[in-house]
Structure formats: C-alpha cells, structure tokens
Write a structure and sequence with these properties.
Elements: E1 15-18, H1 20-25, E2 37-40, H2 42-50, H3 57-73, E3 84-85, E4 97-100, H4 118-132, E5 138-141, H5 145-153, E6 157-159, E7 177-179, H6 184-188, E8 193-197, E9 200-206, E10 218-223, E11 226-236, E12 239-244, H7 263-272, E13 279-284, H8 290-304, E14 310-315, H9 331-335, H10 340-349, H11 357-370, E15 372-374, E16 388-393, H12 400-407, E17 415-420, H13 436-444, E18 450-455, H14 462-470
Parallel strand pairs: 1-2, 1-5, 2-4, 5-6, 7-10, 13-17, 13-18, 14-15, 14-16, 16-17
Antiparallel strand pairs: 3-4, 8-9, 9-12, 10-11, 11-12
Keywords: ATP-binding, Nucleotide-binding
InterPro entries: P-loop_NTPase (IPR027417), PhoH (IPR003714), PhoH2-like (IPR051451), PIN-like_dom_sf (IPR029060), PIN_dom (IPR002716)
GO molecular function, one term: ATP binding
C-alpha cells in the first residue's frame, strides 16, 4: 500500500531525493529539476536547522533554503502529502512537486551501517522509495562523493548536482583566442575592406569563420615568418571587423618596464591597458605572469595615466596546508601572509636604476605600496568602488554567487580583473566546471566591455615549467 507522503508512480517523471549539501551549496536547486519531483527527508530539514547559524556562505544558503521551503509549504490551499507545486513561487520552469517526509520511515539497511547517522537515514529513505515504487526512477542527488558511493553499493541510483556546472568538460571553456587556418584569407578576403586609424588597422571581412568569432576575442596567424595578431571589434553574422593589436613584446611598448614574453601575454596587456574594457578574466597555471602583468598595467594607469585612484587587491584565503589560526593586527595586516605574491611581483616591478640608487628604490616602493590596498573578501558586502583597479586573485575558489557579490561592487570608472587556475581548486564542493571563475568566463564572453585570455606558457623559470609539466 503506498504511503500517504510519497508521490504516486503514475507518470514517467523522476523523483529526486536531495541531500542537505545540495541545498547548502545552491538553495535554488529546489527549482532546477524542471518537470521532475523533489523529495526531502526529515533529516535534511534537521541538518539545515543545525547549519543555519553564523555568517558563512553555507549558513546563509541554509537559511535561504529554509525560507524557500517555508514559502512553498505555508500556503494552506496545498496538501503537503499530495505534494506542493514548485511553480507556486513563480518559477515557471519547475513544473514538478515538492514532497516532504511526514512520517517515520523504517527500512532495513546493512547491519554494519551506523544507525542514527544522517547520511544512513537519508539512504534508508531512498531505499524505501526505491522499493515502494519500483517502476519509477528514484535518484539521490548529493555533492558528497562517499554518499554517492554508498548509495550505488546498495543498488540505488545516485548522481552529483550538475545544475551548478557551467560546462561538463572544461576543455571546451572559452579561451579568448582563435587560431586562423592557413587558408583563412583565401576564404575570407574576397570582399575585404581595410582602413587605418592611428596606429591600428581595421579589417572588415566576410566568411563562415566569422560566425564563430566573439567580441574582444583575439585572432592570430603565424605563417611564413609573418605574424598577424588582431582583436574582434564587431561581429554580425558572417561579417566581422578585426583591429590589429599593440605588440607588447616589443621593447618600445613596455608597461612599467615589463615586456610581454609571448603572444598570450601581449593579448593580456591589450585588455588590461584598454580603458573600454571593464572586466578581464585571466586563466593560467602558476608562472604564466597573470599577477605581474595585472599589477604592471594597474600601476601605469593609476600613477601615469591617472585613470584609477588606487589598486585594490583581494584573494580567497584558503590555505594549502594546515591553517595557521587567527592573525593579529588590522584587516590589511591579517591579509599580509596571503599576499606574498603581491610583494614578490612588486620586487620585480620596482627594479633599481643607477640614477635613483637604494634610497630612490625604497621611496618608490613605499609610494607604490601606499597606493595599493589589500582587502578581505569577508567585508565586501554593501561596498561600492569608484575609479578603482580591483584585482581578485585565486578566483577559482569562489562560488558563482560569491563572484557575483564581488563584481557587483564595481562603481563608475572601476576595472575588475579576475585571475586564477581552475586546476588548483581548494574549496569543498567546487569543481572545475562549477567554479565561479569558470562561470564568469562563460557568461561574460562576447560582451563588448569584457575580455578573457587563457595563458598557456609559463615564464617563471625552466624549473617551474618542468615541474608544472611532470608533477
């Protein structure tokens, strides 16, 4: 006999049983399963209640998930036993129903599985539903790998929460560059129009490859000892306009004494030095020059061009090893152990000259450091940055929601640069596909005021390059 708190198996839609960590990772997951139904065991509500206190992102998500559930079930016109329509809060894509466990469910688990543990209690509910409705697909959704392994060992269907993933395969992530084939000009040069404007030349071309181009995407061709580097400034159907880029690998175009060492670094400086670009994302492994190039461009535009009043640098404070505990001092002093990369790069940028001497070097360093502010991510809510050069380092450890919180701090005249390496994610429940950095790279591609470059070649040292390759 079917229980009064489980959905009937009269239709082909699936029944997803959500683990607590899914709701604490993404409270809106309740509305992400389209026409399928959702079932919440009572232990999930207990764990949400246990994790609701505090100011962490997890606590905020737990509280928000509880609010959504309360709003759904508080309408007296709906019978909880029959399921509450997920559309009732205005989410039109969620056409399924929400079911809550309204009575005690007993189901036999293997004797070696601890009784009373929340994970095992949830598995017991999934097994009960699986046995009660064998003709319906009952699936456990959990961010916990071991939870999914245990479910499959018991013969139950289990899967990760995929809706937070921007891409299933990060090899398909937008790189910001496009290599032109050798026959590109033969196929696209028949109706070519060119014009010179300042130091740049514009080419308006037409052809099938133009459909795949995006605004501010860099295109290049290296053949017959001739290099062509350009950026897409306009794109409409099979017509695109390309503008030649500034060659920052040449010594005459140095930025704060820094010369680009490869093609991608030159593309990066073109984005960083362009005042029309408000948002820049940089991906690359350690030693590709992300921080150095960004700081050099920021210093030139702040101190020489007067475009920005100061540089603000922040990063996610996730330790590689054991945490060193609480740190004394002000906000900036607490952040200083995490900002070793800043000091290392300032040493490179503040190279001594024969004319200035050691005193001049020290004075220049103090001037630069006084114009660079180090801020913690914990105090960003509610702030607005005006005419600032905002650098977000180690952005791969941010969730999409945290990334949105940071980027929306930008006021008029502010440039935001996000950089990181999605192969070095240290935050639990985040993967390469669900990282906030992956999220913004994919969502901002093609916007006329943003740009992205994936740096491939390390320039730190031959030892670092070889270690990154073989280790």
């Amino acid at each position: 006999m079917p229980s009064r708190d489980t959905p009937p198996a009269t239709h082909a839609t699936k029944l997803f049983v959500l683990d607590t960590n899914v709701l604490m990772h993404d409270p809106t997951s309740l509305f992400r399963f389209e026409e399928h139904d959702i079932y919440l065991p009572i232990f999930v509500l207990e764990e949400l209640d246990n994790n609701k206190k505090g100011m962490t992102e997890v606590a905020r998500n737990a509280r928000q998930a509880s609010r959504y559930i309360d709003s759904l079930v508080s309408d007296s016109s709906y019978n909880i036993d029959a399921g509450v329509p997920l559309q009732s809060l205005g989410n039109r894509d969620a056409t399924g129903r929400l079911f809550l466990q309204t009575r005690f469910i007993t189901n036999e688990l293997p004797t070696n599985m601890a009784i009373g543990k929340a994970d095992n209690a949830i598995l017991g509910v999934v097994m009960f539903l699986h046995n009660q409705y064998p003709s319906r697909s009952v699936i456990l959704v959990s961010k916990d790998i071991n939870m999914r392994i245990k479910a499959r060992a018991l013969g139950l269907d289990a899967q990760d929460y995929f809706n937070d993933k921007v891409l299933e395969d990060t090899d398909l992530l937008y790189s910001g560059t496009l290599a032109l084939p050798e026959d590109f000009w033969e196929k696209h040069g028949s109706n070519i129009q060119s014009r010179a404007q300042g130091e740049h030349t514009y080419y308006t071309i037409q052809g099938p490859l133009c459909r795949d181009m995006l605004l501010n995407q860099f295109v290049y061709q290296d053949s017959n000892n001739q290099a062509f580097y350009a950026v897409v400034t306009e794109q409409n159907g099979d017509i695109a306009t390309l503008r030649t880029v500034t060659n920052y690998t040449h010594s005459k175009n140095t930025v704060w004494g820094i010369t680009a060492r490869n093609r991608e670094q030159s593309f990066v400086l073109n984005l960083l030095m362009n005042p029309e670009i408000d948002f820049v994302t940089l991906l690359g492994q350690a030693g590709t020059g992300k921080t150095l190039l960004t700081l050099a461009a920021g210093l030139v535009q702040m101190l020489e061009h007067k475009l920005y009043s100061e540089i603000i640098m922040t990063r996610v404070t996730v330790p590689v090893g054991e945490d060193i505990g609480f740190l004394p001092g002000t906000e900036e002093e607490k952040m200083s152990p995490w900002m070793g990369a800043l000091d290392d790069n300032l040493d490179v940028l503040n190279t001594p000259s024969d004319e200035s001497g050691e005193w001049g070097r020290a004075a220049t360093r103090d001037l630069i450091r006084s114009r660079i502010k180090i801020k913690s991510l914990n105090f960003m809510r509610g702030r607005t940055f005006l005419n600032k050069f905002l650098i977000i380092d180690e952005a791969q450890n941010l969730t999409p929601k945290q990334m949105k919180t940071l980027i929306t701090r930008a006021g008029p005249g502010t440039k935001v640069v996000c950089m990181g390496n999605i192969a070095q994610i240290d935050t639990p429940y985040l993967t390469e596909g669900s990282s906030g950095l992956t999220y913004v790279v994919d969502r901002f591609k093609g916007w006329k005021h943003s740009g992205h470059v994936t740096l491939q070649r390390g320039e730190r040292s031959r030892l670092a390059d070889h270690a990154a390759e073989v280790l």
